[in-house]
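Aim 2 progress update. The chain analyzed this quarter is reproduced below.
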Amino acid sequence: MSEVETQRAYYARTAAQYDAMHVDEGDEHYRALDWLANLIRQNSYTSLLDIGSGTGRALRYLKERQPIRYLGVEPVEALRAQGHAQGLNDDELVDGNALALDLADDSFDVVSEFGVLHHIKDHRKAVAEMCRVAKHGVFISDSNNFGQGSPLARLVKQSINAVGMWGAFDWVMTRGKGYHWSEGDGLFYSYSVMNDLPVLRRKFPKLHFLSTMPSSGPHFYRQAPHMAVFATR
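Predicted structure tokens:
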């Protein structure tokens, strides 16, 4: 079974428990969603695409606050079924591949993701697709592995990354697999939002950041375990 198949099988198996396992009122993604809802209002956006929508938590949250056109893309049928059962229409939460979106360039005002990129091996390609489809901006809420752990652990990871050896280190730590596994999150990769800033800047050079966990310090790369970034022109 491939890495993609393994991850999708995990979510199909845990779909009925997905919200209980991954959604908490007031968690880091809710902080990011509050920010995004305000951005939609402030900029008068009229459409949003969300990739890797799961059961549609982000879509439901935003629809209650900003009644615009929404579309969520989720490849796991069992997760879509949960979203549809919770009120999302068949044309609001659909099948799709974040690496090859079947959508035209600039077809949505803003494109978002919440905790999905650390599950995608070729995350840069996924972000490039988000940028292609976005007309005005891209919103990412995800992890920063270099800001996670104790101060000593962060210093070690950041030092290894500074000399360009993080990929090799992670390969050794995963015993050549290149990915990690936990029963609470399934298959995931070592990921930092910071890794994708160059991709975002190609189309959307203005970057705005929010540290989405209260334990974070003022230096995002060094101290924030999770963050949100809004990239626009």
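The beta strands are 47-51, 69-73, 93-94, 108-114, 134-143, 180-182, 186-188, 206-211, 226-232. Residues 209 and 229 are 5 Å apart (CA to CA). These observations will guide the mutagenesis experiments scheduled for the next reporting period.
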